[in-house]
Every structure is written in structure tokens, then in C-alpha cells.
UniProtKB/TrEMBL annotation:
InterPro entries: DUF3775. It comes from the Bacteria. Residues 39-61 have a biased composition (Basic and acidic residues). Residues 34-67 are annotated as: Disordered. This is DUF3775 domain-containing protein.
Amino acid sequence: MKKPVEKEWELSLGPDTVRLLAEKARAISAAVNDDYDDGKEHEVEFSGDASDRHNHDGLAEEKEENLTEEEFRELIADLNVDEASELLAIAWIGRGDYDAQEWPDAVADARQRVNSRLAGYLLSMPMLGDWLEDGLAAIGA
């Protein structure tokens, strides 16, 4: 592992916030993975004479709600441009797109990419939780 870079900047985004987002990202990833059992990805088999015999009694069917993704998206939406840029730069550094010494460049590039779809972009990263933690460690936060 590389030695953390000596910081010449102060983060706008608190490391505890980044760690919270990393935990939520891991929880979201775990929920998605639990949904796919043995590679069957929601396979449904019907026999030739299948018909819908499910009767509704007028009550809404109960569904277990997982608010983790909604909470993650709300937390991202609450970030200002500086915080969102730093978060994205941390993820990129953790993923290896930038070295910690390239922090100013990573933040500048991230600032150009930050928009209303940031949460979706971050959630598309399969190892986001790990990359956020790795990025924090790399920049010494």
C-alpha cells in the first residue's frame, strides 16, 4: 500500500460522512446481491396451463422497505458542489484512477462531472464502499 500523501489542503467533506456513505453503499450492494440466488436472476417457469389464481382482498400487499438507497441518494443530494466533488475524487482515488498526489486534479475533474445524477453514478460503482475507504486512507483523512 502506498504511503499517504502529505496534505496541503483541508477537506470540505468530513471523513465521517464519507465513511457513512461507504457503509450505506455496502448495504445497498449486499441487498442487491442477496436478491440474486444462484444465478437464477428471477427466473419464472410457467406450465402450459398456468393461470393467475391470485385473489386480492383489496388491501395493499405488504412489502419490506429498504430505505438505504433512498437515504444514500438524499445524502448525496444534500452535498454542496465542493463536498460532492471531493467525494467523487475520493472514490476515483480509491479506485486507482488518480494517485493521492493528484488530489487537486481529481477534485477539478470531479467538479466538472458533478450533477444531479451523481448518486446514480456512484451507485453504479460495484465496490464503492471499499473505494471510498481506500481513497480516504490514501489522502490521509
